[in-house]
Amino acid sequence: QPRLAEFCQDTTFDIINIGFINTFPDQDPLTGLPGSNFGNQCWADTYIVDGVPSKLYSQCPNLVEDIPACQAAGKKIFLSLGGGYQTYEIDTIDSSTKFADWLWGAFGPKTDAWESAGSPRPFGDAVVDGFDFDIEYNVCILIFTGYANMIKRLRRRFEEVPERRFYISAAPQCPIPDEQLGVAIANSVIDFVWVQFYNSNPCSARDFVAGSKNGFNFDEWVQVIKNGANPNAKLYVGLPASALAANLGYYLTPEEVQPLVKKYMNKYPETFGGIMLWEATESMRNQIDGVSYGEKMKEILYDLDPNHPTPTPSPTPTPTPTPTSTTTTTPTTSTVLTSSTTSSTSTSSTTNSTPIPTPSTTTRTPTPS
Fold it and tell me: Which residue in 342, 323, 241 sits closest to 1, CA to CA?
């Protein structure tokens, strides 16, 4: 998998999610630390607590270097929690609060108190721009209020640094209500909701293409947003970036994506945020007419957005596109890139037709096992 910095050279992408924190502290009571998997971006070393090795990788030099470089290029970087693992859960409300505080200390702005205590900083001095909740397994009844409480706690910690904006995003699956994140969306403020409109029937984007009368449920998700804690949240269409990035049949060609975007961008200009792709490396590998799938999505979003600026000449796309994010406060199009914990990555592109601060980009990169 390429380095994060390589993806960040591509102006196609606006948000990159780094994944994953895939084990939570409740699953490792001996160390009290979560576990991570950022693929080949980290070495095999882990943090050790009282002689007990944790599952949290401690040496991630590529990310230490690349995160600030991406941010300097206008990207936003999110840290993603969960993913396609069955190794995480929140056992109590108290543990959800402590976990939120730990995430802020480990990946938010560095403090003297945190450093003096010798607490973990896997990315060194680098600071992520937000936290992404990709919760796909419901293993505890408290998981619902636990995630809402985590988000509320993180929001309170964000207030400690008023000069900088931080974000919360969520990646629910398309069935409504989402078993893992439905309560969190209803009860806590989330900025970006990129729904996985794939690998699920009958609500997938493939159902839109097939003309299924009771299929693709973007309209229903708009109502979920409007009735939730943040009715101004942006809603994204999550798609696989190649035929290999999802189960058979869920991949859409650019020609199939275009009418979907056209319909819902025009129908919900205040809510439609853009496109999310799973995942970064697969987008890079999926070359169409000499450009990546992610760039094709960006072209669709740009061409259909009635608010986009007058086009200006752009350089020929590089053979290895990387995600980028705009830094203006009124973006018209933005793309979101995520990288998985395997050799493949997913990308997502998003457009914003209403003035909001540009979201941050994050890539999820696998960690060695």
Answer: 342
Q: What is the pLDDT of residues 21-76, one digit of tens each?
A: 999 999 999 999 999 999 999 999 999 999 999 999 999 999 999 999 999 999 99
Tell me the C-alpha to C-alpha distance, in Å, between residue 242 and each of 36, 139, 181, 254, 357. Answer: 26, 30, 26, 11, 29
Q: Is 334 part of any domain?
A: no
Q: Across 160-169, 177-186, 309-318, which has the greatest mean pLDDT?
A: 160-169
- What 3-state class would DSSP assign to 268? coil
User: Max Cα separation, the chain?
Assistant: 60
d(CA 270, CA 354): 6
Greater pLDDT, 252 or 358: 252
Per-residue tokens: 39 = 């693929």
What was the pLDDT predicted at 362?
32
> Does 42 map to a domain?
yes
114 is in which domain, residue-wise?
4-304
pLDDT tens profile 309-330: 554 343 333 333 333 232 222 2
Q: How many domains does the structure of the chain reveal? A: 1
Residues belonging to the active site? 136
pLDDT value, residue 365 = 34
| Alpha carbons 109 and 60: distance in angstroms, whole number | 17
314 in any annotated domain:
no
Angle between helices 143-158 and 93-107 (to 10 degrees): 40
In whole angstroms, give the CA distance from residue 312 to residue 25: 49
Match 């760039």 to its residue by tokens: 295
Kindly state whether residue 66 falls inside one of the protein's structural domains.
yes
How far is 368 from 37, CA to CA, in rounded Å?
Answer: 7
Run of H or E residues at 168: strand 167-170
CATH number at residue 17: 3.20.20.80
β-bridge pairing 46-49 and 52-57? antiparallel
The pLDDT assigned to 291 comes to 96
Q: Report yes or no: 184 and 93 within 8 Å, Cβ to Cβ.
A: no
